[in-house]
Structures are given as structure tokens and as C-alpha cells.
Design a protein that fits this description.
Elements: H1 6-9, H2 16-23, E1 28-33, H3 47-63, E2 66-67, H4 90-107, E3 111-116, H5 122-138, E4 148-153, H6 158-168, H7 178-187, H8 210-216, H9 231-254
Helix pairs in contact: 3-7, 3-9, 4-5, 6-9, 7-9
The protein binds nickel (II) ion.
């Protein structure tokens, strides 16, 4: 794998002959998956999509692996009590990921690496992979047996969790966390103007309906203190998450088919 520029690894900026040529050298592709949902009273609605795409582009830049456009809508049903949230139902997200995987597999991609920024997407994404394997086989795709999908949640990379512990301890919390907000501050300096001290957040708890979520978490946060975030921290999170995922991706690309 060779380090390259952001322009080179964005599928959106490639032509089809270039993609065909790429496939003769590499069967791997990165799909950033986010969510468009409230991130507390001071965080950007696009946090999960912005962070997933940034980590994906950094991993792509370091490895030369193509990065598809980000899927910016995720499964965020429980955040619908807050203005600006746009959610796909689990069945819709499942269908979207399934169709994305099948499109890529049809062209010969065999290692689909989804870099995810939102915990609410995990169960549905894994279900979509299971369904995609079945469809690839039933459609008789020539590479069906070689198709592998992997979900990589950047915020759960041990190195990223360790850094969050060092910087924020238990004020990292579970939603609208300072680690993810830090990356958005690094990417988009204008977001710093929203930062202000906040009262202690409601602790994490069970997730039910949107109304119940808003009642339990009136300002949208779960146990987090996003005021602790800084752009400088964000650059560090981006670096450690990308480093961890580059190693994971390279293992994934080198996995034998049988
Ligand atoms: Ni988030």
C-alpha cells in the first residue's frame, strides 16, 4: 500500500476506466458510514458523518485504498425528538448498505471496509452484511465466495478509547462525546464558536422511543462533557483512529479467501 493524496483516493473524483484499472491492482474499498443526528446543545448535527468521512479519507490517504462517498444518513430513530435529526429506519439502512455492497461486489470489489461513526448503525450494518453475502451467492456473482465485509467503528478502536480515557476520563460519556466533537472542531474551526460550559449530562441509560430518549436526556447528551474537546485533541483522535484502522484494514485486505 502506498500513501497518496485525498483527491486520488476519492471514488467520486475517479472515472470508470480509472476504477477498472484500480480493480486490477486492489479489490479493497472503504465506505464511510455516519449519521445525521443531534449531538447535544453545542455539537454539530453532522458529527458522525463528518468524523467517519475524515477517518476514512485519512485511512485511504495512508493506504491508497479508494474511499466511496459517505453514507451520511444512519439509524438514528431515538434522536428524532431533536430538531435537525434525519434517520433511516433499520430496514431502510439495511437495504442501503446491502445495495452498496452488491454494487461494489458486481464490479469485482471483494473487501468492503465500512468505517462507521455511529453506534446506532452497528446492528443494522452487520445484518446488511449477512444479507449481502446471501444475495451475492444467489445472484451467482463470480466473486461471491471471496466477498468479505468488515465494520470498523473508529470510536471503538482501543487506541482511540485509551486517548479518550486519558483526556476526559468518565466525562467522555456515550453520546455527543468530547472525542467525536474534538474531531469536528479540528475539521471545521467555525464550530468552536458553539462551545460553552454545560451542566452535568444525564447518564447513559436504556434506549426506547424518541420521546422517552428526550425525557431521559433533555439536552441530548448521554453522560458527556463536550466542552472538554479541542481542535488539537481532534487532530490526535484522527491520527490514532487512522493508525489503528490502517493496521486493521491491511490485515483485512491480506486475509486469504479460504
Ligand atoms: Ni456521534
Amino acid at each position: 500500500m502506498v500513501a497518496t493524496s485525498t483527491e486520488t483516493i476519492r471514488l467520486q473524483l475517479r472515472s470508470w476506466p480509472e476504477v477498472e484499472e484500480y480493480l486490477s491492482r486492489c479489490k479493497g474499498v472503504i465506505v464511510p458510514l455516519g449519521s445525521t443526528e443531534q449531538h447535544g446543545p453545542t455539537g454539530a448535527i453532522g458529527t458522525d458523518a463528518l468524523t467517519a468521512e475524515a477517518v476514512a479519507l485519512e485511512v485511504g490517504r495512508r493506504t491508497g485504498v479508494l474511499v466511496t462517498p459517505a453514507q451520511a444518513f444512519g439509524m438514528a430513530e431515538h434522536h428524532l425528538g431533536f430538531a435537525g435529526t434525519m434517520s433511516l429506519q433499520p430496514a431502510t439502512l439495511l437495504a442501503v448498505i446491502h445495495d452498496v455492497v452488491l454494487s461494489l461486489a458486481r464490479h469485482g470489489f471483494e473487501r468492503i471496509y465500512v468505517i462507521n461513526g455511529h453506534g446506532g448503525n452497528i446492528a443494522t450494518t452487520k445484518a446488511a452484511f449477512a444479507q449481502a453475502y446471501g444475495t451475492a451467492a444467489s445472484r451467482g456473482l463470480p466473486n461471491a465466495a471471496a466477498l468479505r465485509c468488515k465494520l470498523a467503528n473508529w470510536f471503538m478502536a482501543p487506541e482511540a478509547m485509551q486517548l479518550a480515557r486519558e483526556l476526559y476520563a468518565d466525562r467522555e460519556g456515550h453520546h455527543a462525546t468530547p472525542s467525536e466533537i474534538a474531531i469536528t472542531l479540528h475539521l471545521e474551526p467555525s464550530l468552536a464558536s458553539k462551545q460553552r460550559p454545560l451542566p452535568e449530562a444525564a447518564p447513559a441509560g436504556p434506549i426506547h422511543s424518541p420521546e422517552d430518549f428526550r425525557r431521559r436526556h433533555p439536552d441530548g447528551r448521554m453522560g458527556s462533557d463536550p466542552f472538554l474537546a479541542s481542535a488539537e485533541h481532534g487532530a490526535r483522535f484522527l491520527d490514532v483512529a487512522a493508525t489503528a484502522l490502517v493496521a486493521d484494514l491491511e490485515r483485512f485486505l491480506n486475509e486469504p479467501n479460504s
